[in-house]
Design a protein that fits this description.
The chain is about 40% helix and about 20% strand. It has helices spanning about 25-40, 50-55, 150-155, 165-180, 190-205, 220-230, 240-245, 250-260, 265-280, 290-295, 300-315, 315-325, 335-339; strands at about 1-5, 10-20, 60-65, 70-75, 80, 90-100, 105, 115-120, 120-130, 135, 140-145, 160-165. The strands form two sheets. It has an eight-stranded antiparallel beta sheet, sandwiched between helices. Strands 5-10-7-8 form a four-stranded antiparallel beta sheet. Helix 4 packs antiparallel against helix 5 (about 190-205) and helix 10 packs across helix 11 (about 300-315). The longest helix is centred in the middle third of the chain and has 20 residues, at about 190-205. It is globular, with a radius of gyration of 24 Å. Keywords: DNA-binding, Transcription, Transcription regulation. It comes from Streptomyces goshikiensis. It holds the Pfam family HTH_18.
């Protein structure tokens, strides 16, 4: 287990645990519980009692961040987990489950059946007490715990579910990833702002829309657009209009969000495409011609690609490839090469 950022005021904390390595499972749950109680705290969320089979085989890799009264856990579980039959304990919080692989089954409120969050889905609801749950083996999921004061009036007794790749969930996921990266370095004001933005985006998820003039949401919107662009770099349809449509915002809102962080949408896309083209130029095998690279990365033709590349890197693609070859070490002729 590795922990950082445990401040005296308890406003933030980060810990990582990995009990998926052979031989580490018997200590896995102890390490996870110790990290949670030390870095996050029972005031945010009290971990329930687990079943004996879970205690004996808890193979989970987790990355958990606390921001003020909220917590974000990214979990990868090799083993199935299950709580004790009667977890017990009162609490007052809002929980969100975002499942990428596997499934997470939650005990329903009195009079209601269990609810299963399948891969590609999310569920958010208010919790008034600890409830039973179980997860499948080979689970990849995100678990968010949020204070209830602003969210409970919006949710009431509703259980909100939907696709994990909706526009609002993309924004929330981008924000949680940014928080994991930066929380250890945040000051008190940054910690409060991070929690506030989490709550605002959770409201957006519950409503199915978000307030696109809220300035705190610009970094999350920008990151979500970048994540989407990075997956579509070779797509000829990639454009600010396409990104805005996928994220359910206006093009003007998208441009405004990028401007708030000192960037431009089209510049980001062009630079990322040039970066990938530069990597392809020095690939060990199967190199493409300049014209093929230009077509693949959606430049008008080889001339446009060459001019853009030289402006960005100070060399033409051909010059860059030659200079890299000149400085590369000679190929190894060890056993692996002669096999």
């Amino acid at each position: 287990m590795h922990g950082t950022g445990a401040e005296a005021d308890g406003a933030r904390g980060v810990f990582e645990v990995d009990s998926t390595a052979p031989g580490s499972a018997p200590r896995g749950l102890d390490a996870f519980r110790r990290g949670w109680e030390t870095q996050v705290g029972d005031d945010v969320f009290q971990l329930p009692a687990f079943s004996p089979d879970t205690i004996g085989d808890f193979r989970v890799k987790g990355n958990v961040a606390k921001v003020h009264g909220a917590a974000i856990a990214d979990l990868h579980a090799a083993s199935a987990t299950r709580t004790a039959d009667v977890p017990g304990g009162d609490q007052d919080l809002v929980a969100m489950y975002v499942v990428r692989r596997g499934s997470w089954t939650l005990g329903g409120p009195p009079g209601h059946g269990d609810q299963t969050v399948s891969a590609g889905q999310f569920l958010v609801r208010h919790l008034g007490r600890l409830t039973a749950f179980e997860t499948s083996a080979h689970l990849t999921a995100k678990f968010l715990v949020l204070p209830s004061s602003e969210l409970k009036p919006l949710l009431g007794t509703r259980v909100v579910t939907g696709p994990a790749d909706s526009a609002e969930m993309r924004l929330l996921t981008a924000l949680t990833d940014m928080i994991h990266t930066t929380v250890a370095d945040l000051g008190p004001a940054g910690v409060v702002a991070a929690q506030g933005t989490l709550i605002e985006l959770t409201k957006a998820v519950a409503k199915g829309r978000f307030d696109d003039v809220e300035p705190r949401l610009a970094p999350a919107l920008t990151q979500a657009a970048k994540d989407l662009a990075n997956r579509r770099l070779a797509d000829p349809e990639l454009s600010p209009a396409m990104l805005a449509r996928e994220l359910n915002v206006s093009v003007r809102t998208l441009h405004r969000a990028f401007a708030a962080v000192g960037e431009q949408v089209t510049t980001y896309i062009r630079h990322r495409r040039l970066h990938e083209a530069r990597l392809a130029l020095v690939a060990p095998s199967g190199r493409l011609t300049i014209s093929e690279l230009a077509a693949h990365w959606q430049f008008a033709d080889g001339s446009h690609f060459t001019r853009a590349f030289k402006k960005r890197y100070g060399q033409t693609p051909t010059e860059y490839a030659r200079s890299t070859e000149a400085t590369s070490p000679p190929p190894s002729h060890g056993l692996a090469d002669s096999a």
